């Protein structure tokens, strides 16, 4: 599938994937000069689904891409978004949320290839993992790999990537690998960060001290963790659906 925007075009596209089965796809996003594309991708598969996808975006001069990736359901889901620039001035934001339960393997592999000067990119993904450990149980597992390459000709690049993971139960495993390769010193700025951990005790203490029960406090912390990204999604119906989905996930283990 290919989505192509002409010069000065504007579009918002929602790709909503549900059901069961084994599915592989290749999606291309081609942005003309000064165009703007918002893409919202939702993987809400049934528990036995297998999904492998490659998304390729090519940004023209002064074009803007906002790519929102949401992974909730499925047995094995692997999404590989790639961004490249064909001319100066491109601006790409790659945002994502994922929530893995016991038995799920959710994987995100990103590449931002800065090969044109004076372009920007911002990558921010957040994930939560939960699932009871027991005999015959496969724990939740997520993999996030973010590769950013700044080529020698990409002077004036500005880029940052961040991945954060919240582990809600014992046994769940989050692998996070941010990579940054810089071939020129003439850039505006570049950085990356990764963090994986349990609940913030200070946040929980603050809420408990104000009369909020531990269960409600944990729910508030998780909702706040995700909302930094969810609030940026430009489709209200999708935001409401994700809020409800997170509440459903948290009810599984009484987080």
From TrEMBL:
One annotated GO biological process: iron-sulfur cluster assembly
InterPro entries reported for this sequence: Fe-S_cluster_assembly_SufBD (IPR055346), SUF_FeS_clus_asmbl_SufBD_core (IPR000825), SUF_FeS_clus_asmbl_SufBD_sf (IPR037284), SUF_FeS_clus_asmbl_SufD (IPR011542)
SUF system FeS cluster assembly SufBD core domain: residues covered: 3-225
Protein name, UniProt field: Unannotated protein
């Amino acid at each position: 599938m290919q989505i192509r925007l002409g010069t000065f075009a504007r579009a918002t596209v929602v790709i909503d994937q549900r059901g069961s089965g084994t599915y592989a796809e290749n999606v291309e996003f081609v942005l003309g000069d000064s165009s703007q594309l918002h893409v919202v991708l939702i993987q809400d598969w049934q528990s036995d689904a297998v999904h492998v996808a490659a998304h390729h975006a090519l940004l023209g001069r002064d074009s803007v891409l906002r790519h929102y990736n949401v992974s909730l359901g499925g047995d094995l889901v692997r999404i590989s978004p790639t961004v490249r620039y064909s001319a100066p001035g491109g601006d790409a934001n790659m945002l994502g949320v994922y929530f893995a339960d016991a038995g799920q393997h959710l994987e995100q592999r990103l590449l931002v290839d800065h090969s044109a000067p004076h372009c920007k990119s911002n990558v921010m993904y957040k994930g939560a993992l939960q699932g009871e450990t027991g005999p015959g149980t496969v724990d939740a597992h997520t993999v996030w790999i973010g590769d950013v390459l700044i080529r020698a000709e990409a002077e004036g690049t500005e880029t940052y990537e961040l991945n954060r993971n919240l582990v809600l139960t014992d046994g769940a495993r989050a692998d996070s690998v941010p990579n940054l390769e810089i071939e020129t010193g003439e850039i505006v700025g570049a950085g990356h960060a990764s963090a994986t951990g349990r609940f913030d005790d200070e946040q929980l203490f603050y809420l408990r001290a104000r009369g909020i029960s531990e269960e409600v406090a944990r729910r508030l912390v998780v909702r706040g963790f995700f909302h930094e990204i969810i609030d940026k999604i430009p489709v209200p119906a999708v935001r409401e659906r994700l809020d409800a989905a997170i509440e459903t996930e948290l009810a599984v283990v009484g987080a």
